[in-house]
Write a structure and sequence with these properties.
nine-stranded mixed sheet, three-stranded antiparallel sheet, 475 residues, alpha/beta
């Protein structure tokens, strides 16, 4: 696969923020449903004719590329369900239930590693869930040992080893243990610091829990701390969320993810516990978003794109300036061109020219591995058109502009002709001031950056075949 060209364009913080380009009527007009493009094609295009054999062949092909590896491990357990949650999880307080799951994970690692050149460096490691800190300290140590035995983990200073943490289930001893295991980046779930909101989402979490962990993480020298917030939750107002943001800015995390809550109770059972009449109106949500961007950019954060913010000295902001930012299933990433191997129930891999997904049901995942085979239940092998469009959509989502001349050179095509339909579709966006065109460079304006998902949809050749109601709103 062609290597991304380094972008010659480097946006300033003001340009990225969109804070000075607020047009509420325009944003409301474009606030339709659409993909988040953590992959292209999206997971809705995956099909069940794609087998474990297709995945193992992709693993073998990927060895020829000598690309570094990225490992994602899904830990589905939570002690308590948060009502907003749309993740694949299992609610239990019994940590012994994790033991058979860890054994299945090890079996999956063994089966996967057979097809991989494990001398390839593991540059990235990410544990998500669920709540990875549901595991006991010894279970976490055991899992790291198994990962190291099967893939060979890195001690390099520029590795990116991250874990998602629920501050209600971790303490300073947890952080010291994680550091000893090689983790150097933490992501803490906060969502909101307002007690009324916390009660409504079944996640009461005093600020002191987050603050104590952050202080210890800084003291221990963790390289980057991310805080997750969500806007659009019950009882949130522009004023109440601004108060949360003020406290968060005081805590000074390197990164922030501020997600838009998508209320889909028909798809996600826990959300049925949320009273729809308690949710902020569409106008209030827009006001919250406006205040969020304004406060964070005024505090010195770079609006990377969509829901991600980072300090200018953080690796995400540096990667965006260098044109090496990437998107994967965990969002924006500073480590471009890794092959991503997903491990665990519901995990998705992006290897060579395929996507492969494990079952979302634990019993199906276990049954496949108990038969001595990988648990792949669906996936997709990308054709050349998919690869070209993935490249363009990813560059647009990461760089906020596309250089069609560079795309043409990478893929040996006349990009202006190849994407003539997309360019035609974008004419309305250009008239509305969402993009500018200079020769063969299409750039998102500050307002366009807020609607980058809409702009990317013009390059999506598969969108017409997918029900857009399966996606969340863009803003």
């Amino acid at each position: 696969m062609p290597v991304h060209a380094t972008a010659a364009f480097s946006p300033t913080n003001t340009e990225v923020s969109g804070a000075n380009a607020w047009d509420e009527a325009l944003l409301r007009r474009y606030d339709k449903s659409g993909p988040r493009y953590t992959s292209y094609p999206t997971a809705l295009a995956f099909h069940e004719q794609f087998s474990a054999d297709d995945f193992t062949q992709a693993l073998a092909r990927s060895n020829e590329s000598h690309r570094p590896l990225s490992l994602y491990v899904h830990v589905p357990f939570c002690r308590k369900i948060c009502f907003y949650c749309a993740c694949n999880k299992i609610a239990t307080k019994n940590t012994a239930l994790a033991e058979p799951y860890l054994s299945r994970l090890d079996r999956e690692m063994v089966l996967t590693a057979r097809h991989l050149d494990t001398s390839r460096p593991v540059q990235q490691l990410h544990w998500g869930g669920g709540t990875p800190t549901f595991l006991t300290l010894s279970q976490m140590g055991d899992l790291i040992d198994r990962l190291d035995a099967r893939f060979g983990l890195s001690g390099s200073a520029d590795r990116d080893y991250a874990i998602e943490i629920d501050p209600r289930e971790a303490d300073v001893f947890t952080l010291r243990h994680l550091q000893s295991l090689g983790f150097n980046r933490l992501s803490l779930g906060v969502q909101d610091l307002n007690l009324q909101v916390q009660k409504a989402i079944n996640r009461v979490q005093p600020r002191v829990l987050t603050e104590t962990l952050m202080e210890e993480a800084h003291r221990l020298g963790f390289r980057s701390l991310n805080l997750d917030l969500i806007y659009g939750l019950p009882f949130q107002t522009e004023k109440s969320f601004a108060e949360t943001l003020s406290q968060v800015i005081e805590l000074n995390p390197a990164r922030l993810s501020v997600f838009n809550y998508a209320h889909m109770p028909t798809r996600f059972a826990p959300q049925r516990r949320i009273n729809e009449t308690d949710l902020p109106s569409a106008d209030e949500k827009l006001a919250i978003l406006h205040t969020t961007i304004e406060m964070l950019t005024n505090a010195g954060y770079v609006h990377i794109g969509m829901d991600h913010f980072a300090r200018p000295d953080d690796s995400l902001a540096i990667a965006q300036r260098n044109g090496t930012l990437q998107r994967n299933f965990q969002g924006y990433s500073s480590h471009a061109q890794c092959d991503l191997v997903g491990l665990g129930v519901s995990a998705i891999s992006r290897v060579d020219d395929v996507y492969a997904q494990n079952p979302t049901q634990l019993d199906q995942y276990e049954a496949a591995l108990d038969q001595g085979k990988l648990a792949t239940v669906k996936g997709l092998r990308l054709n050349k058109d998919d690869l070209i469009r993935r490249d363009v959509i990813e560059r647009l989502m990461c760089d906020m502009h596309i250089d069609l001349a560079a795309v043409g050179k990478r893929w040996h095509i006349d990009a202006s002709d190849y994407f003539s339909t997309a360019i035609e579709q974008l004419k309305t966006a250009e008239q509305d001031g969402l993009i500018t065109r200079h020769q063969q460079v299409i750039s998102a304006t500050p307002t366009g950056r807020l609607l980058i998902r809409h702009l990317a949809m013009a390059f999506d050749a598969r969108l017409a075949d997918q029900p857009t109601q399966r996606y969340s709103k863009i803003v």
